[in-house]
Amino acid sequence: MNRREVVALAAAGIAAGVLASVPCANAVDHVLKSQIKALAFDGFPVFDPRPVFALAEELFPGRGADLSNEWRIRQFEYTWLRVASQHYADFWQVTQDALVFAANRLKLELTTETHEKLMDAYLKLKTWPDAIPALTSLKKSGYRLAFLNNFTPGMLEANMRNAGLDGMFDYVLSSDQVKTFKPDPRAYQLGIDEMKLKRGEILFVAHAGWDASGAKLFGYPVYWVNRQNLPPEEFGPLPDGSGDTLSQLVQFLT
Question: 29, 42, 130, 176: which is the annotated catalytic residue?
């Protein structure tokens, strides 16, 4: 597998699909589950990015899938490059840069209007169909809910308003607060610092396999919402639980 295939697999945790569960490290015992007091969510177990991809296809008929894939791959490459090189720019800027690169690589004409439409789509995300019922159930069960995401605070706030999530989350944490991106441990540390809890009391809910690995290496118990039915990463420990919907997360915690 070449470098690009590796990055593509790592970044691929954000398209739609209906999947089966994947293997987990071990069945989490009752004692570990009973310690969990809060859940820290990446953005994409909750927000559905498919409308962004649909818009790309509408604007570039027959090339939308290629543009979306190239955009997403470069988006995550740039976050990791900026962490490694210590040249930070926030996720909004990274997303714009990745879009321009993707269009240039595919030789697509990205006008100012098209650029604005595609970027604006990242401020108007809705939730996956299973998200609100599951979040409501978890909140009623007494869990504290947090976003722990690479989105900028403005992106998170706009999408929460658009998706009808106002008041659902107790904490809205952006890696922009510490000028880095996951899987930098400083990003995961935000959950502990802001919620004043121990690692073992926060279940991290990942969307991408690399994020599940990063959070697990940091020391969080991890549930992977694997909507693409991808194999586990060949890097670090496996998540404690995995399924294809947030409904399965609720069952996992029951």
Answer: 42
| Local structure of residue 239 (DSSP, 8 states) | P
Burial of 52 from C-beta contacts in 10 A (0-12 / 13-18 / 19+): buried
Q: Omega of the bond prior to 129 within 30 degrees of 0, cis?
A: no
For residue 25, the number of C-alpha atoms closer than 13 Å in the C-beta half-sphere is 18
Q: What is d(CA 250, CA 33) in angstroms, rounded to the nearest whole number?
A: 12
Task: Please confirm, yes or no, whether 29 is among the known catalytic residues.
Answer: no
pLDDT along the chain (254 residues), means of 10: 34 31 46 87 96 96 96 95 96 98 97 97 96 97 97 96 95 97 97 96 96 96 95 90 95 92
Residue type, 146: A
Return d(Cα 44, Cα 67) in angstroms, integer. Answer: 19
Closest Cα partner for 169 from 137, 205, 135, 211?
135
Query: Rounded to the nearest 10 degrees, how much is the dihedral formed by the CA atoms of 232, 229, 10, 153?
Result: -110
Query: What domains are defined for the chain?
Result: 22-48+126-253 (3.40.50.1000), 50-121 (1.10.150.240)
* Bridge partner residues of 129 (DSSP): none
* Longest Cα–Cα distance in the chain: 56
Angle formed at CA 216 by CA 43 and CA 159, multiple of 5 degrees? 5
Are 210 and 226 contacting, i.e. CB atoms less than 8 angstroms apart? no
Tally of residues, the chain: 254
